[in-house]
Design goal:
single chain; 187 residues; alpha+beta; Alpha-Beta Plaits; four-stranded antiparallel beta sheet; 8 strands; DUF1697; DUF1697 domain-containing protein
Amino acid sequence: MSADQITYVAFLRAVNVGGRKVEMARLRAELDELGLGPSRTYIASGNAFFAAPRTSGAKRAALRARIEERLQAAFGFEIPTALYTLDEVEEAYAAAPFAAMGPAASHERYSMLFTTGTLDPSVLPQVGARGEWEVIGLHGATAYLHYRVVEGRAPGNPVPRLEKAFGVQGTGRFHHTVEKIIAAARK
C-alpha cells in the first residue's frame, strides 16, 4: 500500500444466501480488476479489504457505485455495498453500546448494521413486532442492534425494514465478527 492510500472495508449485502453465490476468489479478482488490489476477504459473508486513496462525499459514493456496478455485471445480481475506511469500522466498533449491556445471554445477539449513508436518529425507535430486535444506538452510518429469541423463535431479518426507515442500504454483522474483520483487515 502506498503512502497516499488507506485501507477500506467493503461490506456486501446478502451474498452466499438464497442462491446469491459469490465466490471470494472471484470477488477479489473483480476488485483487483477495478484497481483496488491486492484485495483480501474474510469469511464468505462478503467482507473485503483493499487499498485506495482516501475519499469522502461524492468521491466515496462514486467508488461505491463503481464497485456495485462491477459486481452486478460479474455476478448477475445487485450487491449493495457499504463502504467504510478501516478507521471508520474501528471507530464504529469502539462506539458500540454493547459493553454497558454486559455479555450477551444465550438467547441474545449483538449486531452492527453497516449502511450506505448517515442515519437519522429521528426515525428511532425501531423495534421488531415481537420485540425480537431493537436498534439501541446509532453512530454515523452504523446502527447497533440487540436481538433476542422470543417464544423459541429466532429473530427475523430487520434489514429491509431499517433500510426503508433510514433511506439507505445496509448489511449486518455480529459484533464479535466485526472484531475479527478488523483484525483480518489489519494484517
